[in-house]
Amino acid sequence: MSDPLPFLAGGGRAAAMIRARDWSTHPLGPPETWPEALRTALSLVLNSPESLILAWGPDLHFFFNETYIPLLGPRLDWAMGERFDRVWADGWEQAKPIIEDAFAGRSRRFVDLPWTLGTDRGEAETWWTFSYSRVLDGEGRTAGLFILTNETTAQVSAARRLRESEAIARENIERVQLALAAGAIIGTWFWDLPNDRFTVDEAFARSFGLDPALGREGLSLEQVIETVHPDDRAGLIAAIDAVVIRGGAYAHQYRTRRADGQYYWLEANGRVDHAPDGTPLSFPGVLIDVNERRAVEAERDRATTMLRALTETLEQQVAARTAELMRAEEALRQSQKMEAVGQLTGGLAHDFNNLLAGISGALELMQTRIGQGRFEDVERYRVAAQGAARRAAALTHRLLAFSRRQTLDPRPTDVNHLVAGMEELIRRTVGPAIEIAVDGAPDLWTVLVDPPQLENALLNLCLNARDAMPDGGR
Question: Which keywords appear in this protein's UniProt record, sorted alphabetically (predicted)?
Answer without folding.
Answer: Coiled coil
